[in-house]
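Narrative of activities, Objective 1.

The group set out to show that a structural description can be obtained from nothing but a protein's sequence at a throughput compatible with the screening campaign. Below is one input-output pair from the validation batch, recorded exactly as produced.
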Amino acid sequence: TDWGDGGRKQIDFGGDDVAEVVLVDADGKVFLAGYSDASGADEFAVAKLDANGDLADGFGDGGKRLYEFGGTSSAVFAATFDGAGKVLLAGTSNVLGTYDFAVTRIDPASSEVDALFHDDGLALVGVGAGTDDVNGIAVDASGDIVVAGSMLTDGFRGDFAAIKLDASGHLVTGFGNGGKVTRDLSEYEFGFALALGHDDSIVVAGQTGAQVFRGTMGLVKWTRDGVPDATFGDGGALVLDVDPLSATNVDAAYDLAFDEAGYLYVAGSSDAAGDDDFVAIRLDPNGVPDPSFGANGIATVDLGGDDEPRGLMRGEAGEIYLAGTSRRNGNAYFAAAKLSARSGSNTTWARPSRSRISRKITPPWSRRR
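Output recorded for this entry:
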C-alpha cells in the first residue's frame, strides 16, 4: 500500500488511454506503454513511474510522453529493453497507408527518440501488402531485434510473421526473405506471442484454424537465420488442440517462455470444458507435450468464468504465474494463478462444465476505436 495510491496507479493522458505492456528496470522503475488518442489520433504512449509508483520527473511531460509519427493511428503492443538499457517499442502504424510493423527506441531517462535508429527514429516494415499486426519483440544475443505477430492477406486471413532488425533499426537481409519470415498453417493465423530460445531460435504462437476466431493453438519455430526448424513439430510448425475429441472447442496461445533446459511453456485459453479456462502447456525441445506436466502436458485452471490469461512468467524455483482476465456476471476482473512446475506434480484443476459461451478472440489492432 506504500506504492502509488494504496497499491494502485491511474495515469491520464487526456484521452482514451490503453496500456498494453509493462517493463520494470533494475531500479524498480516501471514503464507502461500503449496508445492514447489525447491528441486526436492514436499515438504511441509511454508513462514512467519511480520505485514508489509516482510519475517520474524528467521523463517527458511530468512522467508521460506521446509520440507522433504521422498517419492517423499508431499503437504500441510490445516493448523490451535493449542491451544498453534503452527502451524498444514495437507496434503498428498506418503512416504509409496500411498498418505496418513500427519500431522505435527511446531514452529511458529523458523519453527522447533515438534519431539514429533507422536514420529518423522509426522503422516501418510492411511484411505484406495488407494489415500487419505486432504482438512481440525480443533482442537476441547478437543485439538484433526480433518483432513478431501476423500478416493479414485478405480480410482476417493471414499468416504468422516475424522480422529481424539490426541494432541500428534496419532489416537483417540474411534473415529469411530479406529480413522477413511468414508461415501459413491454415486459412486464419494470428500471432499473439514471441519467445527466443537459448540458440536465438524464434517461436511465434497464437491461433490457427479454418474459421476466423474459431481455431486451435498454433506455434511456428524458425532458426536464428529464419529457416523453419525441422526438429520442432512438423517441419517447424505445431498445432495444439486442448481437446482433440471435440470439433468445436476454441483454443488460443497468448504468451510463451523457455526454461533453462529448452522446454517451452505456453499460456493460453480453451473452452473445451464449456467456458474459457486458463491453460498452460509444457513442450519438450521437439515440441512434444511433456507428460510429467499436468495431464499429458496440459494444465487447466477454471476461475469460475470466461478465463483468459494474457501473460506468463516463470519464477526462480520454476513455478509458473499466469495473469489475465476472468469475466462473469457481466463484469471483468483481474485474474491470476500459480502453478508448480515440478515433474510429476498434478497441476490440473477442473470444475463442472457449463454451457458454451460464444466469444471472439480479437486481434489488438481491431480493438482500437
